Prior knowledge:
Strand order of the largest sheet of chain B: 3-4-2-1-9-8-7
Oligomer: heterodimer
Helix content of chain B: 25-40%
Structural class of chain A: alpha+beta
Strand content of chain A: 25-35%
Largest sheet of chain A: 7 strands, antiparallel
Number of helices of chain A: 13
Largest interface: A-B, 46 and 45 residues
Radius of gyration of chain B: 25 Å
Amino acid sequence: xxxxxxxxxxxxxxxxxxxxxxxxxxxxxxxxxxxxxxxxxxxxxxxxxxxxxxxxxxxxxxxxxxxxxxxxxxxxxxxxxxxxxxxxxxxxxxxxxxxxxxxxxxxxxxxxxxxxxxxxxxxxxxxxxxxxxxxxxxxxxxxxxxxxxxxxxxxxxxxxxxxxxxxxxxxxxxxxxxxxxxxxxxxxxxxxxxxxxxxxxxxxxxxxxxxxxxxxxxxxxxxxxxxxxxxxxxxxxxxxxxxxxxxxxxxxxxxxxxxxxxxxxxxxxxxxxxxxxxxxxxxxxxxxxxxxxxxxxxxxxxxxxxxxxxxxxxxxxxxxxxxxxxxxxxxxxxxxxxxxxxxxxxxxxxxxxxxxxxxxxxxxxxxxxxxxxxxxxxxxxxxxxxxxxxxxxxxxxxxxxxxxxxxxxxxxxxxxxxxxxxxxxxxxxxxxxxxxxxxxxxxxxxxxxxxxxxxxxxxxxxxxxxxxxxxxxxxxxxxxxxxxxxxxxxxxxxxxxxxxxxxxxxxxxxxxxxxxxxxxxxxxxxxxxxxxxxxxxxxxxxx
Amino acid sequence: xxxxxxxxxxxxxxxxxxxxxxxxxxxxxxxxxxxxxxxxxxxxxxxxxxxxxxxxxxxxxxxxxxxxxxxxxxxxxxxxxxxxxxxxxxxxxxxxxxxxxxxxxxxxxxxxxxxxxxxxxxxxxxxxxxxxxxxxxxxxxxxxxxxxxxxxxxxxxxxxxxxxxxxxxxxxxxxxxxxxxxxxxxxxxxxxxxxxxxxxxxxxxxxxxxxxxxxxx
Lengths: 543, 217
């Protein structure tokens, strides 16, 4: 025995070393890093579910697993659940993770179709379970915001990452999720419009531009005769985890039709849904503070100003011919700005985005909504509600009272300050998520003139407020130069210019103390000198 | 692989679109080097040299925020964890280089093979040597032409490298690793274990006949 002792020791040591290498002795150690979405928009649930949609950018979470132990981890299985939404689901089983090795697991959740019934936002929890080596487990969890189906969050970037306008509206690429051509209610509405307003059409068959334009105008006429009106919805900045973003409550096309009212983006979504349902190629043009629908036929774009329906309470309404004329004028400006490299001018090609995996939500038929459409379709048959043959109004005629128009073309703003502005101009509350001190922006329809309303609680003086605004805008790529020109009636009046890579605009502003800070407005735009009378008129109404 | 080209193309297209129709269009070139290590992580280096108009446009789009490139890469590779970004410019030659590490680029599949996904169907692959491959791709987007040349260097421990397809028809490379991924230290231990075991067995076997001889006496 003694003689064999060295051999036995040698054999034991050898087997021990081999065991260390091939068998799971020693301690395996798993280090986990998770990156996750701060919010989920139910409207885009099919994008979140598809790893190929938009290059797989919209995941629920991805997890880096690093084996920082000394032995190999075997059969590493990752599963997850979202209480009330997704039951425990196995994501992946990785056969081995060697010491020092990294492995990545991605989660694209398969939400059920009924997620689109969720109307309000809530905080939800993701639980992740990792099991390995046939018994060892590790648990992780985190929370995120589940938005309501109508809530559209415009960016998924944290404030410090936002470099410019496109970053603030990065989720524009998901707008196609709100275009619902397969919605039974939209299909039914489309049929009614084709039958009763257009009296039959062949735009998708003929592929002729004139037929497509006729379709666009027919669609506008349908909204006109049903007395659909332009009206806003809530749009407020929200903090969602690390993200500060503008969250807009956007009505679905079926809600726009049955509610008979819509904002510019909502009307654009409705048009896109109907155009696609009719077999055409819809496009939505997005410009700063506005959106309008269009169509692509034989490589040419055509557009219409869907908000031309206005409403009696908003002043005049455009005829279909005028709305088309206005849309084409806007399209012309759009192309010029796009060619000039202004990245705020973008468009969403619904078909192209669908090819990238941006697909609409599943919506169920609804008898009540069909009846509503039947009621609306009655107005298509004529009676007192007819479409004017001649233009009822024109964009240029909607300019400000300073040019001699009657007082009915003036609207009042009442907030941190009060003033009057042209009725045809459009108002947006908290338009810039990263500049919360801009409480409202109001712009002319041709986007050459605008008003900004500011509220800066805590500012000690108008000068201090101006300096703060200039500094903040500079971080957003806008260089502001200004000069105090007057102090009257408690207001400090400034004149200045704002320059960005898209050009320079001139403005005049009035600021005053609000008791706990500074409030005020700036009025200006392109061709300042030509419109200075109008701008001064607006400023003279500030209270 | 194609994603890098598509994302970077946005910085190039305006300048390239000025090319006259009668001219021979030379594509802008983007070289991407992929160095895989024994543990499946990759060091990626993308570089390009532009013409004067292209450089002007590139600088205009990039501004003073080269970190935009980092974000673009993170979007191009949402499935991986990227780190150690480094960006260099050679302004006199209108060139730039971006490098970073992608963790977990190569993983072990259910067959026990290491797998690298190429994220494209039917790529044009040229084998340079047993462990070096080149993929060439041409893209025509936004009125510009871009050629991306991806050179993939597999680790020295890789063998039996094969081009394959996944269930969706997307191309991928599979290979085996002689280190198993455990690193050289692990195999030194295993090797020493083999030697000691073999030596122990040999000593036992050699001691056996002498014992028999004693019995026969």
